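Entry 14. Ran structure prediction on the chain below.
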Amino acid sequence: MYSPGASTSSANNTEFGSRVFIYEVVGLAQNGATDQIKCPIRQSGSVSITVPYGRMNQEMQRITRMGGKIVNIKQVNINQGAESQTTHQTQTNETNSQTKGTSMTQAKEKKVDVPVNIYRPKNPYIGKCLGNEELVRDGGIGTCRHLTFDISGGDLRYLEGQSIGIIPPGVDGQGKPYKIRLYSIASTRHGDQIDDKTVSLCVRQLEYKHPETGETVYGVCSTHLCQLEVGADVTITGPVGKEMLLPEDPEANVIMMATGTGIAPFRAYLWRMFKEQHEDYKFKGLAWLIFGVATTPNILYKEELEELQREFPDNFRLTYAISREQKNSEGGKMYIQHRVAENADELWNLIQQEKTHTYICGLKGMEDGIDAALTEAAGKSGEEWATYQRAMKKAHRWHVETY
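Output, C-alpha cells:
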C-alpha cells in the first residue's frame, strides 16, 4: 500500500498495471460522501465500483471511511479479456494461467527455506567482533550497542526476524557454563555490508538493583557483549525463530510497534525494504514504525530511521513515543500505547487489509494498551477485536515477541 500521495506510475509499468478491478461493496448509505463515488447505490445496498490497479489500496481505505465493506473483488484483465474473481470473505481462487489454484494474496507468497539451529550449543560457531558502537547519545539513559560479527568462516545463515544465541565465557556460581542468551538480529540476511558475511545485534546492558542488598547488578551476557573489543571471539548458536519473519510479498503492509531494543528486527526489515533494493525483493507497500523510548537520545538508529523517512515518504511512516519528554492526551507520560490510541482508527483500517502484517517487539507491558486501543477502533465498525485478532494470528498476520 502507498499513502494517498504516492505515485502509481511504477505500478503501471508492471504486468498488473493494465488491470482493473470491480469492488462489490455493501453498507454504504446515500449521503454527500457517497454521492462523490458516482456509482448508483441499489436498493439491495450493494454497489459496484471500478478501480484501477494503482488505486486499489486508496479506494479500500475510502470505502472503509464511508462505512462500507468489500464483499467481492472481480479482477478484469484488459489485455487478455479474461476475468477472475476472489471473494473478500472466503478465499476463492485466482484463475489466471500462472496462479491457478491459489488466492490473490497467496499467489505472491514465496516458499522460503527457514534456517534453524545450524549451530547448536555443543557445536557453536566462533565469530569475531568487527564493530561495537554506542547507540545512546549524550544525555541518554544507560548504554546500548550495535555489534557486528564476522560469520564468513562458517555456514551461519539467517532471515530477518530471527535470533541468534550468544554464550558468554566463564561459569556461573555453581561452576556451570553460562546458558545461552537469545538476541534478535538487527541486520538483513545479507548483513550490514550486504556481502553475506556478517550478522549484527542491538544489545542494551542489563542493569538493576539487587532486591536484598541494593547493589547494582549487571547482566552477564549483555555486559560481555557491550564491552566486547573489536577482534575478540564471540560464541554464536542458531539461528532460531519463525514467529517474526518478514513476509516475502514486496507489496505487503508492515506495521511495527517497538520499545527499546525491540527495534532490532525492525531495523532489519527496514534495511531490506529500503536500503538494499535487492534484485529479488523491491518493497512497494507501506511500512509504519511506532517506536517507544524514554528520551530523545535513546532513540536507537535515529539518523538511519529519519533518513529513510525523508527518502521514502510515501512508503515509510515514523512515529515516536518519548515517555519522559512528551505528554499523552491526559497529561501523563507518552507511551507507545498512547500513540496507538491516537492513530487507532487509521491502524484498524490498515489492519483489515489482508496483506497487512502487524509486529510487536519489546516490553510485554505495552500489549494490553495496544489491545485496548484497537478494541475501541474495531468496535466502531461492529467488530470484536479479540475475535479478529485470533483470526489474524491464525492467518500468520499478527506477530508478537515481548519480554
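The chain has three domains: 9-107, 125-240, 253-402. Will compare against last week's run tomorrow.
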